[in-house]
Amino acid sequence: MLLVVGVYIVAGNLVNGVGKGGVGLAKGSVPGAYKALVQKWGNLCPALNPALLAAQLYQESGWDPDVVSHADARGIAQFIPSTWATHGVDGDGDGDRDIWDPNDAIPSAASYDCELAKYVKDVPGDTTDNMLAAYNAGAYRVIRAGGVPAITETQNYVTRIRSLEKSFAAPTTRIDPSKQAAGAIYYAQKKLGTLYLWGGDGTAEDGGRFDCSGLTKAAYESVGISLPRVANDQWNAGPHPARDELLPGDLVFFSDDLNNSRAIRHVGIYVGGGYMIDAPRTGAVIRFDPIDTPDYFGATRVTEDGAKALPTTV
Questions:
Q1: Model confidence pLDDT, tens digit, residues 38-82
Q2: Helix, strand, or coil here: 138?
Q3: What does pTM read for this prediction?
Q4: What is the average pLDDT value for the chain, to the nearest integer?
Q5: Alpha helix ranges (H) inside 89-151
Q6: What is each CA distance from 304 to 163, 212, 278, 293, in whole angstroms?
Q7: Which one-letter DSSP state was computed for residue 48?
Q8: Rounded to an integer, what distance in angstroms lies between the CA atom of residue 99 and that of residue 77?
């Protein structure tokens, strides 16, 4: 444990500055079927970028083009039919505006964002924050308040989307180390040798056993960060360091489809030196495994704000 924590501290001291991300999309963060659409339409206006548009779509639908909310919001961009009637666009130029078709709905989401940005362009504060607030509460409330209004739901919406934006953006600078990483590693190390259990959360009912995402969830829960239960949902809990920028405590992910984060099927906790602690499969125990395999997908540096921003259902 001391060795791993020592590596974590030294590596952390080498990092300077906070990764601010950019308009590029992190590898695999957007399903391949929608990546080109998000990249193109996410650059529609200065207040928007592809990572921000991706964060909105993920928050709204989890990339499900067939979902319907309790308020009758429909499709991948979750438009209410009355809003679609006035703001839906024919994004693919096929002569119709189909609320269920991502080729129309994604361009419509970007177009609507940019229209709202024009409404609030003279409001004090950050234009993108004000645009998101207008999306949630309406442009009139933002204009009247002189910025993001004092509405808890609206303030939380802006905070969530801006946090999620970092998990979809390809970082342009190094990312700060996680303050909770050492504690998460310490928890996982104590579980070495524990037999794997599919669906295991480490509870008494599970005999203290875990599967891969159950272990990572419990490890970060031990340091006060709540992660989703499933590996592919944990991917969006923070920004994504490159392979040569990994630090102990980063979550490392594996998939048979390296272009789609929704296809992730395995996760472990990086400990340095090219190794992770993971719960690999039925019949095996929690152990150290190498990460440099053909199915290595990428990594997430878990942050408290990133985990809080994740939608409860995706």
A1: 999 999 999 999 999 999 999 999 999 999 999 999 999 999 999
A2: coil
A3: 0.79
A4: 90
A5: 102-119, 127-137, 139-145
A6: 10, 20, 22, 29
A7: -
A8: 8
